Amino acid sequence: MRCRKCSKPAVINMRHHKLALCKEHFLEWIVEQTERFIRKYRMFTHDDKVLVAVSGGKDSLGLWDVLWRLGYQADGLYIDLGIDGGFGYSNQSKELTVAFAEERGLKLHIVDVVASYGATIPEMARLTHRGKGKPCSVCGLVKRHEMNRIARDFGYSVLATGHNLDDEAAVLFGNTLTWATGYLVRQGPVLEAVPGLARKVKPFFRFYERETAAYALLRGIKYIYDECPFSVGAKSIYYKKLLNRLEADRPGAKLQFYLGFLRAKEEGLFAQRAEEVVETLHTCPVCGQPTSAPGKCAFCRLVERVEEAKRRRELSNASS
Amino acid sequence: MPAKLILRNKTYEVPHGITIKQALKKLDIPAEEVIPTREGELVTEDTRLKDGDIIRLVDVISGG
To answer: Do residues B42 and A12 make contact, with C-beta atoms less than 8 angstroms apart?
Structure first.
């Protein structure tokens, strides 16, 4: 197979675009397309201070690399979750992220969850009996809160994440199966800021996961290849695999599914529900971030419960 | 000599002469979920496997 632009041997064939490209033209294409999506969806401009949430994975590091090449003011945020999984998952991903930032002279914020809140993510889940043996919901809650806190405290106008089309299509698929309208209204490549919540954007949302992985490999970005040990059996992976079966028979099905959803939303699908969701936001009296119910937000309640559980454990250890 | 396809820590043997796409189909590995590489270089699925070829498949699915 040959590159459509120069006839050199292709390194990737994107069947949904009927486009095969060589290394040089694929790398160029990813950068150009990212810029096009940023402009088309009015994500941010060169005047904005962008905070990129980086995990050490292919998508977030790839995104940070592209934004850096495009000359945006993009700093990184790494949240050390304290996950080990028998192979030092968090340590390894942190090292890769730090090395990536140093090689390019980029600014990286690091939040250490243990140093800040006294427990790793799996410990928090255990101490508070949340998540039925899996810390994923606690992890999501902590990450969302911390990303928003750093964006607000350091004056970033926008928070960028490396979500790709497969991530977005899998979430959409899951939410559609249950008609979770509250989540459907909040899904999109741009989530506008509301008081206390930073504007969020996903510049890679139209790239297939295969393309973001190819970009990282071809660019020589060293990313964490091993998955989070808690992702085994995750619904999102199951949905991705189902959608890939569909994609195999109908190239472009994933993209069509997601873009069709965005179009329907633009045409007013869920418009009434969107108004209800915005109206019901309250402010947490402790951290000042928005919350769906009056009183402390879920994150502050979690931190309180972790502290209580640790105190109880210390007292019980002292008395035995 | 067969060609080898390696995905994470599993090695699969397939006859040479077929394409990577055909080999993936035979092994029931969705082509959407892997990137084939040969000697560190990315190759497309229409690449015909040669005698003794070693193709490393990079798993692209992540999530949780």
So the answer is: yes
